[in-house]
Amino acid sequence: MRTPFKDLDDYLAIPRVTGLRMSPDGTWLAASVATVSADGKKMLSSIWRIDPAGGPARRLTRSAEGEGSPRFLPDGSLLFISKRPGPDGSDSGTGARPALWLLPADGGEARVIASLPGGVSAVHTGSAGGIVVAGAVMDAIREDFGANASTAEADERLRAARADAGVGAILHESGIVRFWDSDLGPDDLRLFAVSEDSPPRDLTPDASRAFVEHTFAVSPDGAWAATNWYRWHGERCHCDLVLIEIATGHRKVLLSAPDADFHTPSFAPDGRSLACVRAAHDREDGPGDSTLVLVSLDPGGEPADLLPGFDRQPGELAWEPEGRCGYFCADDGGRRPVFRADLARTEVTRVTADAGHYAELAVSPDGTVLYALRDSVGEPPTAVRIDVATGEFERLAAPGQQLPVPGTLSEVVAVADDGQPLRAWLALPEGASAGSPAPLLLWVHGGPRNSWNSWSWRWNPWLMAARGYAVLLPDPSLSTGYGLHHVKRGYRDWGPRTFGDLMAITDAAVAREDVDGTRTAMMGGSFGGYMANWIAGHTGRFNAIVSHASLWAMDQMMATTDAPASFLPEFADPEVLAANSPHRHVAAITTPMLVIHGDRDYRVPIGEALRLWWDLQRHGKTAKFLYFPDENHWVLSPGNVRAWYSTVHAFLAHYVLGEPWQRPELL
Q1: What pLDDT score was predicted for residue 148?
Q2: CATH topology of domain 407-655
Q3: Which CATH number fits domain 8-115: 2.60.120.620, 2.60.40.10, 2.120.10.60, 3.40.50.300?
Q4: Rounded to two decimals, what is the model's pTM?
């Protein structure tokens, strides 16, 4: 069977649907679709028009810089963010920075309606009007740069002065300094009100580090913006939910608790209340839980839990037009179904019953249909129409859907030594049988609070199945979708508890006649890389181990990561930290290891890989080190993705399949 998973260029050429929005009248859907750029060096997105009735999809935008983040105005005009030049080839005042563009509903050329010196990074609108964007602004605009100037003008002057002076330094006086793969400062994110007849107006001039990451929404009437707002106190922080009057910039705190974060707001259709996620902080005695809460915008309103007793972690609420119920998604047993929350009865029911992973929910104007992106471990994201009465879905015509995968997907179950049921997906290659069993690749997910329940473009098991491996994708302790108890099992016990779960599910997989237990490998990234390192020091059952973006020396990692405070409740005790550190077991490693890391990874800093590599070298272990000076936690550029998979394939072929070592081209 012809499949795009046997050749990396064919695989990278597959269109990827990454976002979905419904027009105000429900007659069409705007989707973001990413493809490889003409030079093959990056991914670019464009906006497509998808027909809810099932007609053919049509591409709406084309530029060398790409377009994304589609949003609608009440008249059906489409907003999007892009670095594209203007129709006449000029930069239209954007200076090659992302700007906000408008494509009129009645046709014609797109035009810029808002630009910022630091670029526009996000946009939201109200159903009846109002536009709010996020963008970075220099945090320390001094008086000599800002006298008689708007925020944008003063910002531009200071940026130019730094560039002219050759200054790239950042002076920090408090708070965190990096986030994932970005340096924080000297500018910070803020929110701006946008209208076509005036410059963007700063709604949050005192934001500073309030928006390390932001989730915000605009009320239906366009009068209010609701957003998360980080409050920093020493080494820790919590996240309030604040309400901002767009006309005046007046801000008030709507929800706040020192031991919880409030984020991902969604206004009710009548604009009088909103729902958001409340995520309780982890404590020394256990992990925090998440739920959806509803709060009135009237003074004194207390939040009401919409999901009492619901033992899953919900995402954003999509409202039914009358506001009587809402729909949300949550991990559940290796899937991510759609659920309905009845607001009056605080009752939750499951809508979809298939094995899909759902996201980007939108409700039709009459409330009878949901639109969403649906994917699974065996199918990439595509737009679907869901009948809310039956839960049945229908795929809509869109790029890149229903690819032929090189094998079959099934489930493996086991029982841990403490009696906990365990499960995993198994991607079995074509031709695997009792007479021709496939070598096994155990692939552990990152997180650790995560689940193998969706399609992954970056960590794709079918690229390995196409080369003959049976790929085991387990959800051990700490995984989501199995209740808070499953997370608690591995809390403060990352190494030993998760190791026990992984060995139990691996035993169940190799007991199959179509799996070869004598030829096995293990790999993982981030937390999966941590487990790769832990497994390497605790068993020699695998022929090869691949450790990507991994945690190695826990005391070092917890002090140099971009978010050290987030680990404090779990690992503040030095003895617990030491007991979970893989580096203490380096002498016991006997398995050949491939270490992979990107230099711009700030969540798991490069020091982890450098120390792991040195420890393996000085102990005389068999290892290789694939280093990406220009990549982050994930390794995203197409060329480097090719290098990543080519090296992994060569490494496993040598140590698992017994083939001669072949150094990948260009490395």
Answers
A1: 53
A2: Rossmann fold (3.40.50)
A3: 2.120.10.60
A4: 0.96
